[in-house]
Design the sequence.
């Protein structure tokens, strides 16, 4: 049983994971000359640095140097786009936890003792911490973002009913188990090599080059794997990478920086919290005629990726519903808090939660099952090609809709209707325990909002012994990308996955890559790797066809063999050797760009998404009226992954995404003090779902369809982000339970902690 | 006296020369032994990525016990005489993995893999204890391990796969060598590290005999250390430099748990794990409180007396023991004094413990026939979380249902764990099934003026403290009551709960 495990589906690193041999940045063997870095963070959220005395720190034993903004040879900026994220605070500090200086020491223990000698005198200005404060001071980072269609203002007057309301949506800490980590190794001629836990090696390369005033070809960046990322290592890894680079260049020695948990949580940005105000007009059947949602977003102290996140929030604010007249607005507020950033769903979850809230409240108003309202507003399924086209508010034709069919199937398989009735009977007699159930849909657009990012490259080498080396621009954060792409390459050559060597993402091998984000990893890199492998295979087939006097299309690569006219001619290894001896190039790059997408930023119209992913979930919960404590009892999920490349990995993404979403909506609460101190800066106070919070009963099924209508690799669909939003079903199941405790609509805010649930009943 | 630490690591004996600071086991494994499979996820014992399994001699049980522990908050000298196994030491060979490891692979139970070594070691801990994980045991087994990727279901499947392995296929014979090592080391001289640096001094005294404790306390001013589940954080989180530890974990006379007809007496170095097993069978409500106390890892290291001694206002054991009328025996050289536990807590951060004194044991009276005890904790997350409010309720009830005596105490409601004296007094003579609830609410308001903090608001604490009291009264008087954690509520949710059990 325990002997060498080979299975195409197992995570490529599973054996390394379970034996403790998988190497993360902090595990890379380093020479004893390697220096360690500890960061000095701001203790105030807003103000000026009047005095900074670090000489006493330098004098402490084991301290090599202390660096500040003055030590940066190039640009003092770690931002992804806008140039507004200082690496070290210079003169002014803009959030509590901002990096001011870095201690370079022989060991971390030395640095921890020495840091107590740092003396900084600030002149404080009252900070802007909350969204309410930001709104009051009108601290907009940029003009509001808008997606609209029709005429909301005039059409709402034609509605039978109008509801107005507001939902507060909390943020979320990524809580990747591996903190941000970077290691810089200086090389000859000013070259520098960076090992970093990052979703975006090319951006690290750009930032490090800018910081050190080097050309991009001086900097190489390697990422083998991350211990979780979830968007939190898309732009946030820039800062530690820049700091180790500066330190390594200054000292001439390898330098390593690993954020401990508390520093990580204080420094890095999180999921944006929103206050979303809505006004909706609908008829007696609950069909929505006009909808306006205004999302106020806490962006933190800089832009980071907030603009793109706002756009995605707007483009998902209608979720799965066709609404004729809409006006979606996002206000991006600057606050003296960490700069909020990418996090699984990238604004989509907040936009969709607000929409589902609208549906839930309409249902309560009309005394109907929310599922009925949902169904009456869904986009039409695209079974009939003659059917009238429906467009999203941003002008994209929805041509792959399956939400009606998917929801009907889930409604049936989960026994939703009879359970709902049974629960309502139960709630009438049960005084202290209340139950709730809800079914919510997900429609999620796949592609980067920024057209430029929808490209990928790969490198495939076939060696003369038939072993294959694979490199591509995507990064592995646990999502199983490497395992999937390996399988794509292996099946192109008709060989087993374990004959294909996966290698660390490396800017020297595949250049100019995009972040592994937006669920796009497999779609982009899988296709690029396929194209690379395919070119080699075509060359091999042509040569072998020439040898055996047949068409290259008659040379079949299957099960590790070369088959011509139903006859096994040789193994793949032998074929590789033959081709090498025949002077055939066995190395190729592959390049892919997503076709058919475009975006007119001026008009706010176009086809930003290549396709949509659909799914739905039914969740049942139970609440204790006396305390507000709750449990998720049962979850049924039906999710569309297209034609899956690896069902086990896809299932893992669905389950893991759901529980992460459940944490966001139920127990994970970020608390900032009035002075901007993050009070929840460790797992003692910030609670992500633990083992027993996982639903007691799970039914996870894939939607059985014909695969992606677009020509994605294997007709599969992206799976990273969409399942996160399936957890909305838990939130609205709470709402259902609370509705049995009061007459008026229970305007539940997120996260629905025990305290939140308790007070919402009154 | 002996200055070299002696321990077994993955089956090999290690003699470690005196260390000069409070190095954690995790940092020693990672930095000195290059065993980087043990991960730092939080450095405070909350995430379990650093979990290793240790074998340690337990005097109260008279044998070597195996436990999964958080290596990030254990100081290396505490492991003197122990056997340690890390994730690197599980596989039999490069190709032949331990069944626990195989289960994780086969069930797709790792994604990013960073938490995986910790989960593997928690499951290995169960293997060493010859447990067969099933049902809600699995929730408890992994309560101290956080995973952000998987949603936990495949990990549950891996544990079930291990639970299903028949007895005859479970090889734990290799533990014998390690247990022999641990027992052999009991004969060693006590460990006493004393290293002087240029500016600093580091001492670590681990006496084996209680007679040695008093004099060290009297002469020096060491920090008393037992399980390090709190003090570990002083070093890893507050970066405190502690110059001198007095470790009680090796003192034979402090590792006892006595039971007679009237009471339990728990010695200073008895872990929560051991106490939970023994007291849990008598106090049903305490069993559930303990189940939610930290995690397997924390309960294996942390001590009951340590939880009391640190005086935290949110320690869970203290309110429970106040309600139960427990008392502390405090030693000072040859002398001792006995005080009621509530008088130990003077004010925030201040306890009734003078220089040279230490708590030797806590005495917990058993329930009398007419007594009923309940306790409930409210936290943001059910498992591995610190209480926002914790309420403990002891009632002496007459045959006709009147309260003769009430002892009610709360945690999280004041700067110290504290008795609700107004409420307790008000209840005397009242009929349990017919309480003047408004008066009770008022009395409780007089007892406590809680604060708003990161765990809960003042208003929520006030409301819920009272509601926990109602819950306790309902439960004791046999009315339908509610309690969500654990298996109890399975009855509540009817057929929909059982519907899809087969899917797990």
Sequence:
């Amino acid at each position: 049983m325990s002997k060498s495990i080979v299975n195409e589906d197992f995570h490529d690193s599973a054996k390394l994971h379970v034996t403790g041999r998988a190497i993360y940045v902090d595990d890379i063997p380093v020479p004893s000359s390697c220096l360690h870095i500890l960061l000095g963070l701001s203790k105030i959220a807003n103000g000026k640095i009047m005095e900074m005395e670090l000489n006493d720190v330098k004098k402490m034993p084991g301290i090599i140097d202390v660096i500040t903004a003055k030590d940066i040879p190039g640009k003092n900026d770690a931002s992804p786009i806008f140039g507004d994220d200082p690496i070290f605070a210079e003169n002014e500090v803009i959030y509590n936890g901002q990096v001011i200086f870095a201690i370079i020491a022989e060991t971390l223990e030395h640095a921890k003792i020495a840091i107590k000698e740092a003396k900084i005198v600030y002149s404080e200005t009252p900070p802007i911490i909350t969204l309410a404060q930001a709104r009051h001071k009108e601290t907009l980072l940029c003009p509001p973002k808008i997606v609209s269609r029709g005429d909301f203002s005039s059409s709402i007057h034609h509605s039978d009913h109008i509801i107005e309301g507001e939902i507060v949506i909390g943020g979320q800490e990524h809580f990747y188990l591996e903190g941000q980590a970077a290691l810089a190794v200086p090389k000859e001629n000013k070259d520098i090599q960076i090992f970093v836990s990052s979703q975006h090696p090319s951006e690290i390369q750009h930032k490090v080059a800018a910081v050190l005033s080097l050309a991009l070809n001086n900097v190489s960046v390697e990422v083998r794997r991350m211990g979780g990322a979830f968007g939190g290592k898309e732009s946030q890894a820039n800062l530690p990478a820049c700091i180790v680079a500066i330190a390594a260049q200054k000292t001439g020695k390898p330098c390593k920086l690993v954020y401990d948990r508390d520093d990580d949580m204080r420094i890095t940005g999180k999921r944006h919290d929103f206050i979303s105000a809505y006004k909706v007009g609908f008829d007696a059947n609950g069909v929505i005629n006009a909808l306006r949602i205004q999302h106020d977003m806490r962006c933190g102290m800089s832009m980071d990726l907030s603009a793109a996140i706002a756009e995605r929030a707007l483009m998902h604010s209608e979720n799965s519903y066709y609404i004729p007249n809409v006006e979606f607005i996002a206000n991006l507020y600057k606050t003296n808090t960490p700069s909020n950033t990418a996090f699984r769903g990238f604004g989509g979850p907040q936009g969709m939660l607000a929409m589902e809230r609208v549906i839930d409240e309409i249902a309560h108003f009309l005394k109907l099952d929310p599922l009925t309202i949902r169904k009456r507003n869904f986009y039409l399924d695209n079974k009939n090609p003659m059917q009238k086209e429906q467009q999203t508010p941003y002008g994209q034709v929805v041509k792959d809709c399956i939400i009606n069919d998917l929801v009907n199937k889930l409604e049936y398989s989960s026994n939703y209707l009879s359970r709902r009735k049974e629960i309502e009977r139960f709630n009438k007699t049960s005084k202290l325990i209340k139950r709730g159930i809800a079914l919510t849909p997900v429609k999620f657009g796949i592609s980067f909002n920024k057209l430029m990012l929808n490209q990928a490259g790969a490198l495939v080498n076939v060696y003369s012994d038939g072993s294959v080396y694979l490199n591509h621009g995507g990064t592995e954060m646990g999502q199983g990308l490497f395992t999937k792409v390996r399988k794509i390459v292996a099946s192109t050559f008709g060989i087993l996955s374990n004959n294909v060597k996966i290698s660390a993402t490396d800017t020297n091998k595949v250049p100019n890559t995009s972040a592994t984000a937006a669920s796009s990893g497999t779609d982009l890199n899988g296709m690029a790797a396929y194209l690379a492998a395919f070119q080699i295979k075509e060359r091999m087939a042509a040569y072998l066809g020439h040898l055996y006097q047949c068409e290259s299309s008659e040379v079949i690569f299957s099960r590790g063999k070369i088959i011509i006219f139903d006859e096994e001619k040789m193994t793949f290894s032998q074929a590789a050797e033959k081709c090498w001896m025949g002077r055939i190039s066995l190395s190729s790059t592959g390049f892919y760009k997503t076709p058919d997408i475009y975006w007119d930023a001026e008009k706010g119209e176009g086809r930003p998404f290549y396709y949509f992913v659909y799914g739905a979930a039914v969740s049942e919960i139970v609440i204790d009226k006396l305390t507000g404590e709750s449990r998720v009892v049962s979850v049924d999920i039906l999710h569309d992954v297209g034609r899956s490349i690896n069902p086990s990995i896809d299932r893992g993404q669905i389950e893991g995404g759901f529980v992460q979403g459940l944490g966001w909506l139920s127990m994970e609460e970020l608390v900032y003090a009035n002075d901007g101190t993050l009070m929840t800066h460790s797992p003692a106070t910030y609670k992500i779902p633990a083992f027993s919070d996982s639903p007691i009963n799970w039914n996870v099924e894939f939607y059985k369809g014909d695969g992606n209508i677009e020509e994605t690799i294997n007709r599969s669909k992206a799976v990273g982000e969409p399942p996160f939003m399936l957890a909305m079903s838990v939130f609205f199941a709470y709402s259902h339970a609370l509705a049995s405790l009061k007459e008026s609509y229970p305007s539940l805010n997120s996260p629905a902690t025990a305290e939140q649930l308790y007070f919402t009943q009154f | 006296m002996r200055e070299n630490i002696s321990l077994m690591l993955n089956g090999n004996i290690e003699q470690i020369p005196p260390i000069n600071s409070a190095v954690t086991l995790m940092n020693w494994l990672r930095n000195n032994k290059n065993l980087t499979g043990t991960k730092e996820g939080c450095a405070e014992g909350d995430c379990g990525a650093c979990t290793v399994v240790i074998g340690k001699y337990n005097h109260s049980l008279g044998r070597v016990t195996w436990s999964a522990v958080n290596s990030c908050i254990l100081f290396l000298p505490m492991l003197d005489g122990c056997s340690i196994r890390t994730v690197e030491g599980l596989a039999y060979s490069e190709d032949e993995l331990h069944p626990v490891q195989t289960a994780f692979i086969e069930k797709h139970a790792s994604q990013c893999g960073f938490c995986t070594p910790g989960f593997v070691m928690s499951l290995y801990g169960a293997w060493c204890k010859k447990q067969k994980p099933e049902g809600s045991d699995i929730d408890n087994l992994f309560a101290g391990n956080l995973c952000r990727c998987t949603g936990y279901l495949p990990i549950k499947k891996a544990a079930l796969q291990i639970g299903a392995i028949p007895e005859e296929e479970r090889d734990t014979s290799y533990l014998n060598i390690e247990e022999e090592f641990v027992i052999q080391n009991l004969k060693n001289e006590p460990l006493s590290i004393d290293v002087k640096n240029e500016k600093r001094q580091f001492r670590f005294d681990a006496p084996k005999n209680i007679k040695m404790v008093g004099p060290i306390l009297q002469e020096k001013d060491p920090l008393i250390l037992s399980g390090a589940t709190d003090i570990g954080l002083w070093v890893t989180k507050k970066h405190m430099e502690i110059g001198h530890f007095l470790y009680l974990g090796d003192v034979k006379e402090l590792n006892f748990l006595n039971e007679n007809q009237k009471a339990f007496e728990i010695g200073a170095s008895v872990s929560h794990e051991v106490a939970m097993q023994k007291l849990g069978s008598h106090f049903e409500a305490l069993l559930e409180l303990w189940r939610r106390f930290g995690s397997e890892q924390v309960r294996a290291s942390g001590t009951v007396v340590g939880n009391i001694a640190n005086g935290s206002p949110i320690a869970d054991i203290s309110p429970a023991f106040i309600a139960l009328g427990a008392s502390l025996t405090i030693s000072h050289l040859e002398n001792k004094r006995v005080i009621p536990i509530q008088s130990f807590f003077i004010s925030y951060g201040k306890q009734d413990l003078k220089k040279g004194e230490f708590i030797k044991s806590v005495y917990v009276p058993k329930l009398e026939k007419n007594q009923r005890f309940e306790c409930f904790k409210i936290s943001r997350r059910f498992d591995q979380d610190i209480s926002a409010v914790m309420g403990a309720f002891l009632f002496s009830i007459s045959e006709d249902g009147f309260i003769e005596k009430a002892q009610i105490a709360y945690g999280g409601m004041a700067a110290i764990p504290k008795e609700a004296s107004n409420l307790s007094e008000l209840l005397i003579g009242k009929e349990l099934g017919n309480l003047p609830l408004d008066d009770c609410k008022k009395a409780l308001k007089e007892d406590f003026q809680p604060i708003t903090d990161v765990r809960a608001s003042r208003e929520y604490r006030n409301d819920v403290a009272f509601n926990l009291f109602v819950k306790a009264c309902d439960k004791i008087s046999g009315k339908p009551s509610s309690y969500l954690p654990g298996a109890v509520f399975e009855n509540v949710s009817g057929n929909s709960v059982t519907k899809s059990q087969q899917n797990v």
Observations:
- The first helix of chain B runs from residue 25 to 32.
